[in-house]
Design goal:
This protein is mainly α. Helices cover 67% and strands 0% of the residues. The chain is elongated and about 50 Å long.
């Protein structure tokens, strides 16, 4: 996965937009450090990098068991009936109105820091 990342020419910032992880966590994942990632994250990253899922899922399961994850945790993580959202749902109208109302002030605040 790390070689595919380097050859893709993408940055951690690019990937963190599409994978629900901070850049620091993506870096840990690609270095093999930190906590063991859930299959959903690995799968989404593999899709973005153009890696085949079949051998990768088998290797992920084997490594998860070697990392002392329970069989139940592995099975739940790779269960195909789990709902995975591939894009953000449209927020409710009330939320959208709140965002429009505070967006500019929040951006100014964020730029200050």
């Amino acid at each position: 996965m790390r070689e595919a990342y380097f050859s893709s020419g993408r940055t951690l910032g690019d990937l963190s937009v599409e994978v629900p992880l901070a850049k620091s966590k993506l870096s840990e994942l690609l270095r093999g450090a930190g906590l063991y990632p859930r299959w959903e994250i690995v799968s989404r990253l593999a899709t973005l990098l153009g890696l085949p899922h079949v051998p990768l899922e088998r290797l992920w399961k084997q490594a998860a068991l070697e990392a002392h994850k329970s069989r139940d945790w592995v099975d739940r993580s790779t269960d195909s009936t789990t709902a995975v959202t591939t894009h953000a749902a449209t927020p409710p109208i009330d939320h959208r109105a709140l965002c429009e109302h505070v967006e500019q002030d929040y951006l100014l605040y964020a730029q200050a820091f």
